[in-house]
Amino acid sequence: MKKYFGTDGIRRIANTELTPTLVYRVAKAGAYVLSKHLDHTPTILIGRDTRLSGTLIESAMTAGFLSYGANVKLLGVIPTPAVAYLTKKLKADASVVISASHNTYEFNGVKYFSNKGMKISDEIEQEIEEVMDSGKIDELTAIGDKIGVSENREDLINEYVYFFRKIFEESIEENNRIDFVVGLDVANGATYKVAQDVFEKLGIQYKIINNEPSGININHDCGSTHLEHLKEFVLENKLSLGIAYDGDGDRCLAIDEKGNEIDGDMILSIFSKYLKEKGKLNKDTVVATVMSNLGLKKYAKNNDVNFVETKVGDRYVLEELLKEGYNLGGEQSGHIIMLDYNPTGDGILTSLMLIKILLEKNVSASKLCDIITLYPQALVNAKVKNEKKKEYENDKEIQNEIKKLEDEFKDNGRVLIRPSGTEPLIRVMLEGENQEYIEKKAKELAEFIEKKLG
Predict the structure, then answer these.
(1) In the chain, is it the N or the C terminus that has fewer CB atoms within a 10 Å radius of its CB?
(2) Number of Cβ within a 10 Å radius of residue 407
(3) Cα of 176 vs its chain's centroid, Å
């Protein structure tokens, strides 16, 4: 079991749990593990989101890499998928994103990407941890002219903008309408500048909110985890579509012109249908996680699309895509991976593909979503200390309560219990036909778990 890395890198409260000392060690060990087979001086990219602690963590990370002898290119504030894209395009040896994604500002995190622009595997994370705790870390010290150097390359964000222009410019120019206006909620996060630049370059009319980051307002009542304000914004301004990114820009959720949410499962159904019609859905398959709605499975069955399920986490979706040669997968939360373009979830890419389909088909967003009917879901978090998150599996009383619910819902819903990979929580998810009833049952079970393990 890993000590530092969770399902999405290392994520902790900055400067108390995610200390500069820990980050320095993670950088040194990571540079060693990721580049030990190289025959040249490694180059590593570093990007970050807008949270207050970003420059603190960036400085410690840079020091660790330089001390080992790696060279660093500092990308500044930039979305996670942009770092992934640039790592591959520039043929860097590795990269790091400093972000806590959708978490509040006091958290920060470290995510490694390989030279292929993909999150590193569980096995490599395990190896980094072993080096960190082995005592070998002190030996990884560059001397004299072997010490690394860093350079500021914030200008490289322009390469990411051009990436979208190559993909979408022709189609959007051909199908754009004067009455088509998009609302953008950039969560005071990593997309706050680049999203505007992309939409302006493509000629998409937009109105933007939550684009004034202060370092502490990232994800605060905004972005993909708080859609209420965007819903109001879309309705008040009579917009064609609302788009919400998360703090680091790898997620995208949407709001239709009537104020209804378009979640990741709905986006996957829209994209898979479109790609299948174009003959571009590899093996007619969509990949999603166990958290996906039953409605996505039924959509797939009714539309002759194969549905493949993985563990929770976009890294496991990506692994399945690569292993079997599929090209579309994602999560209900809005991580959508389109492997033909970028090997990670990309909020801006997702939003532009949705816009491309809307304009090409010349229909409303609500009409586009008619192909899928979602089952009501209730998700309640039980607050449990990190070291106790797995104990529910062996607690007989908790297992008995779970079994009762599974028996009750087996024919018209389901029960899913899983520990969070990034927070001190156990997530209780129920799916059924009656929203009020499943919310009541989910809350009761979460409270019972808290009482037993809290």
Answers:
(1) N
(2) 10
(3) 28
Q: What tokens does 335 get? A: 């991580």
pLDDT in tens, 163-212: 999 999 999 999 999 999 999 999 999 999 999 999 999 999 999 999 99
Longest dimension (CA), the chain: 68
Q: By C-alpha distance, which of 341, 326, 328 is closest to 296?
A: 328
Domains 10-158 and 180-371 equal at CATH topology level: yes
Would you state the structure tokens that stand for residue 81, as one six-digit string? 């998928």
Q: What is the CATH number of domain 377-453?
A: 3.30.310.50
Mean pLDDT calculated for residue range 327-340: 96
The fold for domain 10-158 equals Alpha-D-Glucose-1,6-Bisphosphate; Chain A, domain 3 (3.40.120)
**Does the annotation count 101 as an active-site position?**
yes
78 backbone dihedrals φ, ψ, rounded to 5°: -160, 145
Q: How far apart are CA 208 and CA 192, in angstroms?
A: 9
- Nearest Cα to Cα of residue 300 among 315, 287, 319, 316: 287
Which residue, chain included where needed, has tokens 């040249």? 40
With cut-offs at 50, 70 and 90, classify the pLDDT of residue 354: very high
The CA distance from 61 to 110, in Å, is 9
List the one residue out of 345, 313, 315 whose CA is nearest residue 422.
313
CATH number of the structural domain 180-371: 3.40.120.10
pTM: 0.89
Domain spans of the chain?
A: 10-158, 180-371, 377-453
